[in-house]
Amino acid sequence: AHAAAAGKPVVLLQVGDDTTQVWAGQGLQPAVVLTLAVGARRTSTGEFKHDPPTPGEMELAIMTVEDAVMPIARQLPTGAILYTTDAGIRQIAHIAGLADAPQMLLQLDEVERVYNLLAAAALGRPASISGERTDPPFAATWTILREFMHHLGFGAVAILPAAAQPG
Q1: How many helices (H) and strands (E) does the chain have?
Q2: pLDDT one-digit tens code per residue, 78-127
Q3: 134 vs 154, higher pLDDT
Q4: Angle 60-65-69 (CA atoms, 0-180°, nearest 5)?
Q5: Residue 137, burial from CB neighbour count under 10 angstroms (0-12, 13-18, 19+)
Q6: pLDDT tens, residue by residue, 29-79
């Protein structure tokens, strides 16, 4: 959250294997730290069993993620900027056609557009764009991001470099 605009509330989203972490607050001190019981591996083993996922699996995953996301709406600050350093979300931005950069801004309509390609793949259409991934953990990350933005009112997510993570 080091690039956060001064005085603007921020929300940081990180999709993990088994849980999704959400930090919210002003500046560098998170006032709220939430753990959602959905993650790339947990959601993919629970709902996504095929590559690409079936339409039924996608519906089930959406409902599961909605159930996890909806209750936290009132705990998040209004007007917050959504950030992530998530590598999976960075990959979604690449698939959406964003040029690679240390900081990228992925709009909700781009998330939706690319998600519709995943939905089309679920309906049996071949993957139609270069670099498209439909494997279960990636499909799960995609679903979590989409539902999080959609239901919590975020029009965009700012993708920051994952410098804070050891690598």
Answers
A1: 5, 6
A2: 889 999 999 999 999 998 999 989 999 999 999 999 888 888 888 887 75
A3: 154
A4: 150
A5: buried
A6: 778 899 999 999 877 777 888 888 888 999 999 999 999 999 999 999 988
What would the two tokens of residue 154 be?
A: 């975020």
Which tokens belong to 130? Answer: 């270069």
Q: Which residues are CB-contacts of 14 (< 8 A; sequence separation ≥ 6)?
A: 20, 21, 22, 84, 85, 86
Distance CA 16, CA 30 (A): 19
Residue 98, token pair as written in the block: 């964003």
**Contact call for residues 163 and 78 (beta carbons, < 8 A):** no
Q: Is 49 within 8 Å of 56 (Cβ atoms)?
A: no
Q: How far apart are CA 2 and CA 137, in angstroms?
A: 28
Residues 165 and 47: their CA atoms lie apart, in Å, by 29
